[in-house]
Amino acid sequence: MLTDIIQFDFLRHTFLTGLLIGIIAPLLGAFLVVRRLSLLADALSHVTLAGIAFGLFIEKQLIFPLSPLYSGMGFSVIGAILIEKLRSVYKAYQEIGIPIILSGGVGLSVIFISLANGFNTDLFNYLFGSVSAVSRNDFFTILGISIFIILMIVIFYKELVTLSFDEEHATVSGIHSRRIHFLFIVLTALVIAASIRIVGVLLVSALMTLPVASAMRIAVSFKQLIFYAILFAETAVIVGLISGYYLSIPPGGTIVMVAIFILIITLACKRLSFHKGVEDK
Fold this sequence. Notes:
The chain is mainly alpha-helical and 281 residues long. The protein is built from 13 helices and no strands. The longest helix is centred in the C-terminal third of the chain and has 30 residues, at 251-280. 46% of the residues are buried. The model has no long low-confidence stretch (mean pLDDT 83).
């Protein structure tokens, strides 16, 4: 595969994109899990699916050229903004905005998929990922998104950590909680939109949460949590892409299964270390 990666541009773009996704997905996922907002990724992924189906429908009608990647990204960001608006409307039940937008995303997906003549190869690749779907333009778009996300995390790391662990303290400390939360969900929307080419829109939330769940079993600090989550995600992505290439299957499913296997290993190791500690006592 290494020879093919050097020889073929599309494989090189796919592999590099996978490495980028392996960084930004668990990076945002760590904050999602700590804030107990894992369902947010599911909601935005379904909204992104609606955007992809809309883009395919526009392409079919030949109205104007619109890449499903960009339409999915636009829908995802709009969905994130609507969730934040619903948080301000339902102040006592702020989490209700997530299932509302998730339901809306599913409904729009069904409508646009039907208008675009149902499932086809392109839509299947967006749903479950593909080792040959990343074009040169897609790669540079995802590279730009990844750089922007990493910069925002570095710049606002202290505020995001404080908001994640103690929102009341963050507000008292003078942190603009609503602005930081708005930035956070927009970054989450961008991660999901960027990941759909490799993992698939239906499985991207797994890559944001499973490596973090594994890292939580062995990490002793939040920075360690992020480090181990990225390490586990990169492992899953690399194995998934290689398997998808040689077995001619969508890499998304393999990536998720490798992530689950890593989670099982960390759970077993933690359990064994616990029993060993009890026996030593």
